[in-house]
Structures are given as structure tokens and as C-alpha cells.
Design goal:
Blueprint: H1 2-33, E1 40-43, E2 47-54, H2 67-91, H3 97-120, E3 123-131, E4 134-135, H4 141-164
Antiparallel strand pairs: 1-2, 2-3, 3-4
Helix pairs in contact: 1-3, 2-3, 3-4
Length: 165
């Protein structure tokens, strides 16, 4: 029983760590090799790489807040939420695999962006997608982790709900 719990804890920390690592490595490569507002086409005009610093949250939300409010809403509260989320993951043993992995992705992405905000005062964003009339804001791999994590949880819930009906 203790070995199973130990392996589960190691797996959780590995999944979270891989998400943080991929995010930080990609941001460091962009910080060192891409100039601000460069427009590097990776897949034609559909996937471009451009470096911006986001001092707010998702899509620059909160970027114009006063410093105290930014610290509270973009640093302090997220730290508390991520710590509570990690503790929840480590001690809630009856989570489905989809919820467990999804939450690991969300927490890993959150920590990746939070680290940037703490270390640099802003988050490095660098990816942009445009397909026809659909286009995204500029984002990073931490954002991808968060979205993928949410998708894993949602799809797992839908599959579970369908199985129960």
C-alpha cells in the first residue's frame, strides 16, 4: 500500500514537473533567440512564433491593475490555489486517472506561468494560431498545458457520464 502511494506521488510530481520543464525550456529558447514582435512563420501563416511579455493573466487580463492588486490577484492567490491543488492531488486517492492527469497538467502550466511572473514580472508568450477567421491570442506551452488539462478532465467526465447512462 505504501509503495503504491509512493509511486502515485512520484508520477504526479513527474507529470507536473514535465509540464513545468517543457514550458520553461521553450520560454528560455524564445527569450534567448527571438526578438520582440518578430513574426516567424512555422506553418505558413497558420502557426507563427512571436515574442511578447504579458504582465497580466490570460490575454493580458489584469495588466493595467495597480501593483498591489497585480501582486494579490496574479501572484499571491495563484500560489495559494496551486499549493492547495497540489495537496489535493497528493492526498485525494480516489480521483479518476483523467482527473488526476488533467489536474497535473493544469497545475504544471499554472506553476510555469507563475514562475515567470515571479522571476521576470511578466509571462513570456510566443505562439499564435490563425486558421481562416479563427485566431488565438499569443500564448505559451504553460497555457497549452492548462487547456489540455481542462480538456482531459472534461472528456473524462463526459465519457464517465455516458457510461453511467
Amino acid at each position: 500500500m505504501m509503495l503504491k502511494k509512493f509511486i502515485r506521488t512520484v508520477l504526479i510530481l513527474m507529470i507536473v514537473g514535465v509540464n513545468i520543464g517543457c514550458d520553461q525550456v521553450s520560454k528560455n529558447i524564445v527569450r534567448k533567440n527571438v526578438y520582440f514582435y518578430d513574426n516567424i512563420q512555422l506553418l505558413g501563416k497558420h502557426l507563427t512564433l512571436t515574442k511578447v511579455e504579458n504582465s497580466g493573466a490570460f490575454l493580458s487580463l489584469g495588466a493595467t491593475l495597480p501593483d498591489f492588486a497585480k501582486t494579490l490577484f496574479l501572484l499571491t492567490l495563484p500560489v495559494i490555489a496551486l499549493i492547495l491543488g497540489l495537496v489535493f492531488l497528493l492526498f485525494k486517492s480516489d480521483l479518476s486517472n483523467q482527473k488526476l492527469v488533467g489536474l497535473c497538467f493544469i497545475i504544471g502550466g499554472g506553476i510555469g506561468n507563475l514562475f515567470d511572473r515571479w522571476q521576470y514580472g511578466s509571462v513570456t508568450d510566443f505562439l499564435h494560431i490563425q486558421v481562416g477567421i479563427f485566431q488565438t491570442g499569443i500564448f505559451n506551452l504553460a497555457d497549452v498545458s492548462i487547456i489540455v488539462g481542462a480538456f482531459i478532465i472534461l472528456s473524462g467526465s463526459l465519457i464517465q457520464r455516458k457510461a453511467l447512462s
